[in-house]
Design a protein that fits this description.
Order of helices and strands: HHEEHHHHHHHHHHHHHHHHH
Strand content: under 5%
Structural class: mainly alpha
Number of helices: 19
Strand order of the largest sheet: 1-2
Shape: globular
Number of strands: 2
Length: about 475
Amino acid sequence: MEMLIYLVISVLLAVLPLVVRTERATNIIAALFFTVQVAGIGLILGFGRMDGVMLSIFRADTLAVVFHTLMTAVLGFVLIHSSSYLKAEDISTRSYKAYYTLVMLLAVAITCVYYSDNVAMTWVFLEATTICSAGIIYHREFQQSLEATWKYIFVCSTGIAMAYLGILLLSTVAEHGALDYASLSTVMTNGNPLYLKVAFLLIVVGYSCKMEIFPLYTVGVDANYAAPAPASAFISTALVNAGFVSIYRIYSLYASTEVFEWARHVMILIGILSLAVGAMFLRRTNNYKRFLSYSTVENMGIVAIGMGIGGVALWAAVFHVVCHTLVKSSMFFQVGIMRHIYDSYSINRIGNYMNINRVGAVGFILGTLVLLAFPPSPLFLSEVMIFSEIVAVGSWWLLVAMLVLMCVVIYAIWSRTLRLGYHSNQDALHLSAVNRRLSYSAAVLLIAAIVLGLWQPDFLKEAIDTIVNIG
């Protein structure tokens, strides 16, 4: 009942901006929506709702609560930065309200993905995220956004359809049509190995469009490029995490099956291909939003490798996703501020940012160092743990391949960041758009990530321990 009340209130608040008249009223509604998200987490943690089944299709397990908390933290900053971003774009009040409605509906759909305890319903809610995201991608209404929107709808729908075929194959092992994860985990060992392998491939490849890993990663890159920067921060973190959670739940089901070793190798292969794609395109792109998007592909590739290696690397993979959420959202917010100063995302044309907006430049450079896993970055900790587990299992070829590709990534990202900070600028400037308060607010998430690199609180360690206990 609590989940039903939460969903009804959230959806009503999400659509309410469509009937109010002013942007101020929309901002108030957005604040109320954020409050409801926080209250929902508090209800679960404070009133013993953990691991309880709700409405027969939701379950508040540790995985769901951790990522819902992360999403809510990022959402608060998205709503704040969106207001400033949209006002600077000088859009109509109607577009302003529609944007907020879509972002809040997307948050509801992502939350449902996190808590879904049913393979089929996870698929339904992921498709709902496609619809909401498509409206956000087209929000700016220029030619590239229209192209990106149709591409997003087509590729995501194709991917989701592939995943549906995989779910149909999984349903062949279900008893009495029960598709909740707990019921499936008890009967997976009885499944036909060939069916299980094909189902895993179809689901992982289908959901790769959400997690932004090989092979359907391109749709996420185009979406982040076309959407407003604060929404890109949300898509590249909360929505990517929804893809990770969906794949992780399926992956966990295979832990007790005879094809689990095969599934692990599939994840390693997908991970190394994602890392290779990220390294290759980071050198070629000339747009800072695409640049950050390919960085997401690279980081999710590392996560996929950690999942495939298992052991300590699996713990590190979950920790990596948590910290990447904080870092990447912070950097997208900084890029959104930069967009209105230069009126461009072009890497080759903009520069001298250190003298124009020192706070934003320091935030972006520091974010780059954290993203590249330089100590005390939390990503340094997670990557070292993954490397150590790779050495422990003797996969030297994988270690060498990762190190080579990551050297390419470090060079590509660091050279672009230095160019932004110190290279001469070729485009016209809008110095009135410098907003140091927003730059400081974006840095809050980055600082939180750095703190996690220096100190991991016990509750977070215990939560990840619970998440990775899959077999």
